[in-house]
Design brief:
This protein has three domains: about 5-70, Winged helix-like DNA-binding domain superfamily/Winged helix DNA-binding domain (Arc Repressor Mutant, subunit A); about 75-170 and about 350-380, Nucleotidyltransferase, domain 5; about 185-345, Nucleotidyltransferase, domain 5. It contains 13 helices and 13 strands. The chain has helices at about 5-20, 25-30, 35-45, 110-130, 150-160, 165-180, 240, 245-250, 260-270, 275-300, 310-330, 330-335, 350-365; strands spanning about 50-55, 65-70, 75-80, 85-95, 95-105, 135-145, 165, 185-190, 195-200, 205, 305-310, 340, 380. The two termini are about 15 Å apart.
Length: about 375
């Protein structure tokens, strides 16, 4: 047994999440001396998980310094993003590198077994393209709050655990680790679509659980006196103002037009002088500003990330959003928070699901035993 077993996982986690780093930087982060770092990196390199390379830029005269980087092709996870209209599977390597990505339409009125068949086919395709000698070390899936039973179905299909989480929360984790929130400890992520969802990260940790029982941000009360009925049974939830149907109804548009394209069109038409679209956009900006002000006051995040349809609303109604924040948020919480769009796009939830799949492996990278997934032959289990 390695003398450094807990530290091996900590070091690999740093490199996995932050990318290539010098041994001196790793020593500072982990609070150990350089000889310990050299021993740890030597052991992980011998296992094929890390490698040393010269830094891309010199820090001074002489030879370029060495950095430690993960080997994405050596260990990977299967990640799934299961949406209402499309399902995506990917092979994600150490360091969060997307090695292969396949998607398929999700048929309407799909049963759990039909969905698993679609995912099995996608999973088989991406495993067959794996580099010989590579290892599958985990699996994670992102999906909407219901049905969470698909995790059990996937485990039975693949013969190993598939860790399941809610799509918006996993997208929040990915944006904080690798996207618009990288480098910040306190992040609020808001995602617009059929409804409003998101995730709250405080001191680097997601609030709540990666399951369907965690309350959604979309049920935040914003208009209790004059609000519309919500699916949760309350009145005036954020969903009733910024969900897809509500947005398009305010602008007098067809909710069946496809929410991202329709909302983009509304913002574009508002900028072109469409009075109805401009009025609907301004109203939406007010509600978004109220919601963000509430979250800033309660959480005091360093960054609020707006994604999905909300990123388009913010692009067209930033003035209204910031005016509401200035009016409603307390003075000591306004200035430090930065509002910015998400940058990972359609891969956000997928990369978040990959982090779920990597978690157990990163805790114990040299001793975790992983049975081979039955759906593929390109990779092997890591030993």
């Amino acid at each position: 047994m390695s003398r450094f077993r807990p530290s091996l996982g900590a070091l690999l986690t740093h490199v996995h999440r932050s990318g290539p780093m010098s041994r001196a930087a790793l020593a500072r982060r982990m609070g150990v001396n350089r000889s310990t770092i050299m021993a740890l990196t030597r052991e992980l390199a011998a296992a094929g998980l890390l490698e040393h390379q010269h830094a891309a830029t010199r820090s001074g005269a002489g030879r370029p310094s060495l950095v430690v980087r993960p080997r994405p092709e050596r260990a990977y996870v299967l990640a799934f993003d299961i949406g209402t209209d499309r399902s995506v599977a990917a092979r994600v390597g150490l360091g969060g590198q997307l090695l292969d990505r396949r998607e398929a339409d999700t048929p309407t009125r799909t049963s759990g077994q039909d969905m698993c068949d679609v995912l099995a086919e996608l999973g088989q395709q991406i495993q067959q393209s794996a580099t010989p000698g590579s290892a599958c070390v985990g699996a994670g899936a992102a999906l909407d709050a219901e049905p969470m039973t698909i995790g059990t179905d996937l485990r039975r299909l693949f013969g190993r655990p598939v860790v399941v989480g809610r799509r918006a929360q996993l997208a929040a984790v990915a944006e904080r680790e690798r996207g618009a929130g990288a480098g910040f400890h306190d992040v609020v992520y808001l995602q617009g679509g059929d409804r409003v969802d998101g995730g709250i990260i405080v001191d680097g940790a997601i609030l709540g659980h990666h399951d369907g029982q965690t309350p959604t941000i979309g049920h935040m009360l914003v208009d209790p006196q004059h609000g519309r009925p919500c699916s949760c049974g309350s009145l005036g939830c954020l969903d009733t103002r910024l969900g897809r149907d509500a947005l398009l109804a305010t602008a007098g548009r067809d909710p069946e037009a496809g929410h991202h394209d329709a909302v983009r069109a509304m913002v574009r038409d508002a900028a072109a002088g469409d009075h109805t679209a401009a009025k609907a956009l301004a109203i939406a900006g007010d509600w978004l500003g109220i919601a963000v002000a509430n979250l800033i006051t309660l959480i005091r995040p360093q960054v609020v990330i707006l994604d999905g349809t909300l990123r388009y609303l913010y692009a067209g109604a930033a003035e209204q959003v910031h005016a509401r924040i200035a009016h409603h948020a307390t003075p000591d919480t306004r200035r430090p928070t930065d509002l910015r769009p998400g940058i990972l796009g359609q891969n956000a939830a997928l990369l978040g699901a990959a982090e779920l799949g990597f978690a157990a492996f990163l805790d114990d990278p040299l001793h975790m035993r992983s049975p081979r997934l039955r759906s593929g032959s390109g990779g092997q289990a890591f030993h």
